[in-house]
What we know:
Elements: E1 27-31, H1 39-47, E2 51-56, H2 69-78, E3 83-87, H3 95-104, E4 113-114, H4 120-133, H5 137-145, H6 165-178, H7 180-193
Parallel strand pairs: 1-2, 2-3, 3-4
Amino acid sequence: QFITLNEPYRKRSKSKPMLYTKLENDVATLKVYPGFDGKRIEHLVEYGAKGIVLEGYGLGNVPLLDNHMREGIAYANRKNVPIIIASSSRLGRHWKRIYEAEIGMRLRGLKVIPVYDMLPETAYVKLMWALGQSADYNEVKRMMQKSCAGEITPFENLYTTDTSKKDDEQGLLALLSADPRLLIAMAAEYMVSSLY
């Protein structure tokens, strides 16, 4: 026996496992950093990449000031090459609130697929799998944003039955007090993004 279990084996579900034999190998990953040149995205598309994972910095941020990032993403969009935005930051169960501000607003008008707190390495392999099953953008997006094996932390709504602003503020304060590094990261990224 090669594997020793620490506890008794238990099945995840009653469904039978399925073997997917089709993977798209022409997938690339790029680590994004301040000063990143978006022309790299265009070069990868021209080289034949069928999908690209961008590992944003901080909460999944990508630089947009004088670096051709928008043009690179738009070029990939025209060529039907999905752009995935991943982050190494652990956002936990409140990821949806943070991503709406960081990714949704700043990249408006561009087709990108945020994968929330999925690790970039996981996003890379999952994109290989998704593109092996379908080349349709909407289907790839659906597959990428669906948690198949716990790779995306389930979203916990900040609102209770009362959707008042006060409840939202209390939920966000609880999130920030749980991890002060998140507050520092959000403040730093707000200052940087306000330059764009």
